[in-house]
């Protein structure tokens, strides 16, 4: 017999002010006490300032959430999810991850960014603690400086990062976190030697 899916209880919700087109946020709780924050609607999220209070900040305080973007949501706004505890991310229609969007977040041990995302902003995952493995999808074009800069426990092994063939631009100080960088041999701009990232002409 199929189990009936238990309904999610809506804890808090609201409109996202300042977005180009109507957008909403909803925080739900499942019967097993899992929390999910859903960003839905259409177009780009607004960008926020340094640790600016977002509409969902208070509702999510102290909770670890699964973050879900709707299929028509095309960006994760700058600073929008800074300092949150995030267990998983479903990227939906996101093409752009804003600067510092996930600054000082914690909770994820595996960070996977699909190739449907084209642009990763400056410091997007700066000090994103607890991540032990990373996956970047083919389709990502631009990775701005400091995007994956965080400090892991020196007693833990570093992280291996594979740069997809699609990446055209990588900012400085992007991969502090990595002990080994491997570049897809089909990438026309970058290469790696002994786990270190170089331009194709080894500079």
Query: Helices and strands: which structural class?
Result: mainly beta
Mean pLDDT: 91
Shape: globular
Biggest sheet, in brief?
A: 5 strands, mixed
Strand order of the largest sheet: 1-2-3-4-6
Name the helicity range.
under 10%
Q: In words, what does this structure look like?
A:
2% of the residues lie in helices and 34% in strands. It is built from 1 helix and 16 strands. It has one helix at 57-60; strands at 9-15, 23-29, 35-41, 64-69, 75-76, 85-90, 96-97, 110-113, 119-120, 133-136, 142-143, 159-163, 169-170, 178-183, 190-193, 196-199. The strands form 5 sheets. Strands 1-2-3-4-6 form a 5-stranded mixed β-sheet, with no helix packed on it. It has a 5-stranded parallel β-sheet with strand order 5-7-9-11-13, with no helix packed on it. A two-stranded parallel sheet has the order 8-10. The mean pLDDT is 91.
How would you briefly describe this protein structure?
With 203 residues, the chain is an all-beta fold. It is built from 1 helix and 16 strands.
Which SSEs are present, and which pair or pack?
Blueprint: E1 9-15, E2 23-29, E3 35-41, H1 57-60, E4 64-69, E5 75-76, E6 85-90, E7 96-97, E8 110-113, E9 119-120, E10 133-136, E11 142-143, E12 159-163, E13 169-170, E14 178-183, E15 190-193, E16 196-199
Parallel strand pairs: 3-4, 4-6, 5-7, 7-9, 8-10, 9-11, 11-13, 12-14
Antiparallel strand pairs: 1-2, 2-3, 15-16
């Amino acid at each position: 017999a199929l189990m009936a899916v238990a309904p999610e209880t809506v804890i808090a919700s609201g409109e996202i002010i300042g977005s180009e087109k109507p957008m909403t946020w909803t925080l739900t709780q499942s019967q097993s006490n899992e929390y999910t924050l859903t960003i839905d609607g259409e177009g780009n999220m607004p960008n926020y300032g340094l640790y600016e209070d977002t509409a969902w900040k208070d509702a999510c305080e102290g909770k670890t959430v699964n973050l879900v973007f709707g299929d028509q949501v095309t960006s994760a706004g700058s600073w929008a999810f800074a300092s949150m505890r995030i267990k998983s991310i479903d990227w939906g229609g996101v093409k752009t991850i804003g600067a510092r969007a996930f600054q000082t977040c914690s909770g994820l041990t595996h960070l996977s960014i699909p190739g449907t995302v084209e642009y990763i902003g400056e410091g997007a995952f700066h000090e994103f603690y607890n991540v032990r493995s990373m996956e970047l999808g083919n389709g990502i074009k631009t990775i701005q400086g400091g995007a994956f800069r965080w400090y892991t426990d020196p007693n833990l092994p570093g992280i291996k990062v594979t740069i997809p063939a699609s990446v055209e631009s990588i900012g400085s100080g992007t991969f502090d976190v990595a002990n080994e960088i491997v570049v897809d041999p089909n990438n026309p701009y970058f290469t790696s030697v002994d786990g270190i990232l170089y331009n194709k002409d080894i500079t």
